[in-house]
């Protein structure tokens, strides 16, 4: 049975906007740092990425949050520059040291999509490989 709305899937049952995700702390806005790195679109990290690879774990020496954030943003920029034209999801790889031993390779995903449900300008979200 067809309804009067324009969606073939029916009415939206639940929506979670980026504004809500930012207010809840589920995403972190890193647009200012991204602009410094030459990324033109707004950029966000999921909380999982921020906590695991930007926040400095207790007891780790020689690291700071600003430097770790720069590494994530810069390697995202590098991934964007290397990506094929027309893709909206790219791999991002970088080395992160979360203890006082050697850094380990971390693989993330950067996805380009709408900034929010009511704002279709492009934005980049960096997430863990199992996040969506």
Give a quick set of tags describing it.
132 residues, alpha+beta, 5-stranded mixed beta sheet, 4 helices, 30% helix
Order of helices and strands: HEHEHHEEE
Structural class: alpha+beta
Beta-strand residue percentage: 25-35%
* Average pLDDT number: 92
Q: How far do the termini sit from each other?
A: 31 Å
- Count the helices. How many? 4
Radius of gyration: 17 Å
Biggest beta sheet summary: 5 strands, mixed
- Shape annotation: globular
What is the count of distinct domains?
Answer: 1
Spatial order of strands in the largest sheet: 1-2-5-4-3
Low-confidence blocks of residues? none
Helix content: 25-40%
Short description:
The protein is α+β, with helices and mostly antiparallel strands. The chain is 30% helix and 29% strand. It has a 5-stranded mixed sheet.
């Amino acid at each position: 049975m067809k309804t009067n709305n324009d969606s073939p899937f029916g009415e939206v049952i639940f929506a979670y906007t980026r504004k809500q995700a930012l207010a809840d702390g589920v995403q972190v806005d890193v647009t200012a740092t991204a602009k410094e790195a030459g990324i033109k679109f707004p950029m966000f990290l999921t909380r999982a990425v921020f906590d695991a690879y930007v926040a400095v774990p207790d007891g780790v020496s020689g690291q700071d949050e600003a430097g770790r954030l720069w590494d994530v943003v810069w390697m995202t920029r590098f991934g964007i520059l290397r990506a094929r034209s027309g893709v909206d999801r790219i791999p991002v790889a970088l080395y992160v040291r979360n203890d006082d031993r050697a850094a380990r390779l971390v693989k993330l995903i950067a996805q380009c999509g709408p900034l929010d449900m009511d704002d279709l300008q492009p934005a980049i979200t960096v997430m863990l490989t199992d996040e969506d």
